[in-house]
């Protein structure tokens, strides 16, 4: 499984907001500069996070909608990436007509469950504090 650039920047941007959580709203240009990403691309990444309610726009800046310890990595990646299933048939039963007889379906399900478990346990606070 590979996380896209959008997913990586989404998680990094949210970690940036977590680091500056107690400083009030952060300007998009400041986040972009700290994360070395263009404002245009960052705006594209921030949009689904706002739509899902993980961040809110306050005046000219952005802030986490909840404390960093209350937002996990799975929520963020699902918001910007969608499903983290390694193959389409895990989530979409219509994708493959061999889903019920496929010898590998349980491997793909287990991979998804494992990845989601790790991401669910890791919060923005963990990332911001660089905790293992």
In whole angstroms, how far apart are the ends?
21 Å
**Oligomerization state:** single chain
Percent of sequence in beta strands: 5-15%
Beta strand count: 3
Summed up, the helix count is 6
The level-1 CATH class: Mainly Alpha
Give the spatial strand order of the biggest sheet.
Answer: 1-3-2
Structural category is: mainly alpha
**Could you tell me the mean pLDDT?**
92
Q: List the secondary-structure elements in sequence, H or E.
A: HEHHEEHHH
- Please state the overall shape, judged from the principal axes of the Cα atoms: elongated
Helix content: 40-55%
Largest sheet: 3 strands, antiparallel
Unreliable spans are: none
What does the radius of gyration come to? 17 Å
- In the CATH hierarchy, what is the architecture at level 2? Orthogonal Bundle
Total number of distinct structural domains: 1
CATH superfamily: Winged helix-like DNA-binding domain superfamily/Winged helix DNA-binding domain
Secondary structure elements and pairings:
Layout: H1 5-19, E1 26-27, H2 28-35, H3 39-51, E2 55-58, E3 61-64, H4 73-81, H5 105-121, H6 124-128
Antiparallel strand pairs: 1-3, 2-3
Helix pairs in contact: 1-2, 1-3, 1-4
Characterise the protein shown here.
The protein is 51% helix and 8% strand. Helix 1 (5-19) packs across helix 2 (28-35). The chain has one domain (5-128): Winged helix-like DNA-binding domain superfamily/Winged helix DNA-binding domain (Arc Repressor Mutant, subunit A, Orthogonal Bundle). Strand 2 (55-58) and strand 3 (61-64) form a beta hairpin. By secondary structure, the chain is mainly α.
């Amino acid at each position: 499984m590979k996380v896209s650039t959008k997913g990586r920047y989404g998680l990094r941007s949210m970690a940036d907001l977590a680091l500056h959580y107690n400083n009030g709203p952060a300007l998009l240009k400041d986040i972009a500069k700290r994360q070395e990403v263009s404002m245009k691309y960052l705006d594209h990444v921030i949009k689904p996070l706002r739509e899902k309610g993980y961040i809110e726009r306050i005046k000219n800046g952005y802030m986490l909608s909840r404390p960093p310890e209350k937002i996990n990595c799975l929520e963020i990646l699902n918001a910007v990436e969608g499903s983290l299933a390694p193959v389409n048939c895990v989530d979409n039963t219509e994708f493959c007509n061999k889903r019920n007889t496929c010898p590998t379906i349980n491997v793909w399900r287990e991979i998804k469950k494992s990845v989601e478990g790790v991401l669910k346990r890791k919060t923005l606070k963990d990332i911001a504090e660089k905790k293992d």
